[in-house]
Amino acid sequence: MKCIKSIKKNANDIRKILLKNNHISRDYKLMTDEKYVYIPLIDEYDENLIDSIKTQYSFEVTNHNFTQSQHRARNFIDYLDNKIDPEKINDIVKSFDIIGDIVVVEIPDDLEDEKYNIAEAVLKFTKRRSVYAKKSKIQGIMRTRQFEYLAGEENLETIHKENGIRFKLDISTVYFSPRLATERERIVSQVEDGEIIIDFFAGIGSFPINIAHKKNATIYSVDINPEAYKYTKENIKLNKLKGEVIPINSDINKVIDTLPKADRILMNLPGTSKDFLDVAVNHLKKGGILNYYEFAADYETPINRVKKIAHPREIEVINKRKVKSQSPGIWHMAVDIKIN
Ligand SMILES: C[S@@+](CC[C@H](N)C(=O)[O-])C[C@H]1O[C@@H](n2cnc3c(N)ncnc32)[C@H](O)[C@@H]1O
């Protein structure tokens, strides 16, 4: 079983980062000996995340024999009064997404008849307000999903806390992923005070508000979805910001010519952001940075795409990482590219 072997002094800090990124295996118990702590990793752990933690702490990724942890699943099974095959329980637990006080679950097809029992158990187990099941993939130009109400209070609106910020949203009318919290932190750490930034596909302002919370930058937060725009305005008011977030409800193509040239452009629409690359490159100042996202199997695909569109301008790849797995072999990739 792959694990992180760390001296005790650093183990808790490392554990917290792994936990936040859903990188600790729930099937095994953390172990210690006199000198070291062994933290079990999930099977598909992200090597980039491990590398980024290595820049702060020294540790080893190694194999270790762990004893199986029944604890978490056991609680959940207890709430289900043993109605469901215990082998399936861990898969359900792993599918939880918690957005504010809403738990989103994936109910496997063969457990459809048990969905209300499962949802009641999830409600007790997580002590949140509402439980919804995913009813569609993320779809359409606005990247939204349909949900089915299962348990607790029927209310799709919630306030999600992330990096000391509060985000109000309706999970069915706007896009929001709590799994991007670390990615947002990474972007914030790159930004310098005084930057002019455009987020082409800003949703409820999740990247812009994270940036403005910590940095004195000006961020144009553009989204085509009127609901996303409505929540961006509310979220600006909900948080104390050092910088300025300017919400705009428009197709980026229609509004770009009215915006100033940018030091940085964010493009987190990984399925189709490539169609907007020429507009973005043309709108970056000399030496400006593109934080570009694409679903791809390797880093070369997004990097070569930017290189081709930027030609004859020189590009410099500052950073690249796999944000999360999209489907087998395909990653939600991030590349940070300076365009000279
Ligand atoms: C994947 S979501 C990302 C939202 C946000 N960046 C985040 O990470 O939470 C993409 C967003 O782009 C918006 N969008 C799609 N096409 C657009 C366009 N042509 N102009 C502006 N926004 C667009 C959608 O409404 C959606 O909110």
| Helix proportion | 25-40%
CATH topology value of the largest domain = Rossmann fold
> What count of domains describes the coordinates?
3
Which kinds of small molecule does this entry bind, naming each only once? S-adenosylmethionine
From the helix content, strand content and strand pairing, which structural class follows?
alpha/beta
Strand order of the largest sheet: 13-12-11-14-15-17-16
Fourth CATH level, the homologous superfamily of the largest domain: Vaccinia Virus protein VP39
Number of strands: 17
Name the features.
340 residues; alpha/beta; Alpha-Beta Plaits; GMP Synthetase, Chain A, domain 3; Rossmann fold; 4-stranded antiparallel β-sheet; 11 helices; 17 strands; globular
Describe the structure in your own words.
- The structure is a single chain.
- By secondary structure, the protein is of the alpha/beta class.
- Helix content is 31%, strand content 31%.
- The chain contains 11 helices and 17 strands.
- The protein has a 7-stranded mixed sheet. The protein has a 4-stranded antiparallel sheet with strand order 2-3-1-4.
- Strand 14, helix 10 and strand 15 form a beta-alpha-beta unit.
- It starts with a strand and ends with a strand.
- Bound molecules: S-adenosylmethionine (SAM).
- S-adenosylmethionine (SAM) binds next to helix 7 and strand 12.
